[in-house]
Design goal:
alpha/beta, Rossmann fold, six-stranded mixed sheet, four-stranded antiparallel sheet, 7 helices, globular
């Protein structure tokens, strides 16, 4: 599903070139749950942006579902992001004065997809256990509930891949475990999950842990899931 071959990413700041990725090769199969770990500056967020088609490599090759991303234009990349990939962020990125259900609807609104929009948004909230909070605004929800709304928003287009960038970074330990149980269940249902985290206990929920250091893959290890994670 996700294949990166010797991918580099260099950012140019005037005359200065800053290499963020220095030749990363990685393969993620359909239905996997992979955690990507690394210290600040290791390249993990850059890698997430490339996998999510938010950016393109400086060199190397990225193939998603058999399609070479380098062959696509901006509109085609946007279409892939909307159809195949759901994003979950550390800061939730919810619209403060909008209801939970309206926040969940937003990807469909941007895509101009009005078909059963409210019904689909409510179903997504049901899937994350928040149907009874559909009319609440983010300020009326706990951090864990806000992240569940964000996950429902990511699910609204029925993507095959969920990219979660530090999804528990703003949560307490109990809420973090709740979110990881939810992601684990979504993985059990067949979704591919790529998780960025710096927290070892969060990474244990994944079946594979890829560690980055200085823009390179330092290790790539499979492991059994912890109790409560996907079987």
């Amino acid at each position: 599903m996700i294949v990166l071959e010797n991918v580099t990413k260099v950012y140019k700041m005037g005359a200065l070139e800053v290499p963020a990725l220095k030749g990363v090769s990685l393969r993620v199969e359909e239905g996997e749950f992979v955690a990507i770990m690394g210290a600040s500056g290791s390249g993990k967020t850059t890698l997430m942006n490339l996998v999510g088609c938010l950016d393109v490599p400086s060199s190397g090759r990225y193939v998603l579902d058999g399609v070479d991303i380098a062959t696509l234009n901006d509109d085609q990349l946007a279409a892939i992001r909307n159809r195949k990939i759901g994003f979950v962020f550390q800061s939730f990125n919810l619209i403060p004065r909008s209801s939970a259900i309206h926040n969940v609807e937003m990807p469909l609104i941007y895509a101009g997809d009005a078909e059963r929009r409210r019904e689909r948004a409510f179903a997504a909230l049901q899937a994350v256990g928040l149907a009874d909070r559909a009319r609440h605004q983010p300020t009326e929800l706990s951090g864990g509930q806000q992240q569940r709304v964000a996950i429902a928003r990511a699910l609204i287009t029925d993507p095959a891949i969920l990219l979660a960038d530090e999804p528990t970074g703003n949560l307490d330990s109990e809420s973090s475990q709740d979110i990881m149980r939810l992601l684990s269940e979504l993985n059990r249902q067949g979704r591919t999950i790529v998780l960025i985290t710096h927290e070892p206990d969060i990474a244990t929920w994944a079946r594979r842990v890829v560690r980055l250091r200085d823009g390179l893959v330092q290790s790539d290890e499979s492991r059994p899931p912890q109790p409560g994670a996907a079987a």
